[in-house]
Amino acid sequence: MNFLPSGICFYVSVAICWLPAKVHASRWYMGTLGSQVMCDNIPGLVNKQRQLCRQHPKVMQVIGAGVKDWISECQHQFRNHRWNCNTMGRDQNLFGRLLLRSSREVAFVYAISSAGVVYTLARACSRGELNTCSCDPTKKGSSHDAKGSFDWGGCSDHVEHAIRFSQIFVDTKKREERDARAIINLHNNRAGRKAVKRFMNLECKCHGVSGSCSVRTCWQAMADFRHTGDHLRKRYNSAVQVAVNQYGTGFTAAHTHFKQPSKNDLVYLEDSPDYCIRDQDSGSMGTGGRVCNRTSHSMEGCEVMCCGQGYDMSRVSRTTKCECKFHWCCAVHCRDCHQQVDVHICKGQT
């Protein structure tokens, strides 16, 4: 099994390389020499990141494998948007030149990737996949909530450990750069990490006579990553355009009538392109070839999605399961129903 899809190097805030297909996952277990060779060949890392990579090769593997999850979440959140978090498979950078800007979309990419690192690492700790961490060791003894007292038990997700590692590894390069974009990206990294922590849930199991719940055992668990994605998408919608101060140490709202950004807000420096036409310099893939909804007036509607350039219609046949019936015991039998549907596709730039 390959470590990651072939031939793609990904560098956002995480600086993880998607290694060529010939590199096998087992090479992460070759010991000190093997991890040193591997980490020295990941482009874009600064010295401190390379040191951490050599010290924690299994952690790097876990984070790298989790990249697909946050990219999938990003694409879900923007599936009906002109910019749909599309990646460029043959580019050294998954998002092309988009990341050279400091737009609202880039703010989301940094936040969701940082959140993804925390979520993936905390989950791996709880599952016992890493020898450097496990369940949250601070969740011991007794505590209480609105329902009364309980005993800590089970395995609480060690989010604080994941956040600390993410801060050390992910933020290191940006801390060294300290230009305007680095300051903005560090802020959005932090907002992403805070979003994961925001959705920690207390889960409990009842004990007692006939399930009376006279005694409870509880643990802290992360909510599904979809909650984090939904939250960051809302933050994207209300993101604040900012200007960096003359000392390059902080920022403030770019316009006096804008609210001052909080630690939870996403921030950006530059206006976004319209993403209507393919433009490699801005990282826009254009909307030509995208499916649109002819009857909608929202972002997924053909007028908006296709940027007024028109669309083509084709009739396709789709097969779905229908007339399903339950048969005792224990099967469900369905018919294959064929349906002709109209599909609308945005025209490309003319």
UniProtKB/TrEMBL annotation:
It is found in: Secreted, Extracellular space, Extracellular matrix. The keyword Disulfide bond applies. GO terms for biological process: canonical Wnt signaling pathway; cell fate commitment; hepatocyte proliferation; neuron differentiation; swim bladder development. Coiled coil: none annotated. InterPro entries: Wnt, Wnt2, Wnt_C, Wnt_CS. Residues 1-25 form the signal peptide. It comes from the Eukaryota. One of its GO terms (molecular function) is cytokine activity. GO terms for cellular component: extracellular space. The keyword Glycoprotein applies. Keywords: Developmental protein, Disulfide bond, Extracellular matrix, Glycoprotein, Lipoprotein, Secreted, Signal, Wnt signaling pathway. Ligand for members of the frizzled family of seven transmembrane receptors. Belongs to the Wnt family. This is Protein Wnt.
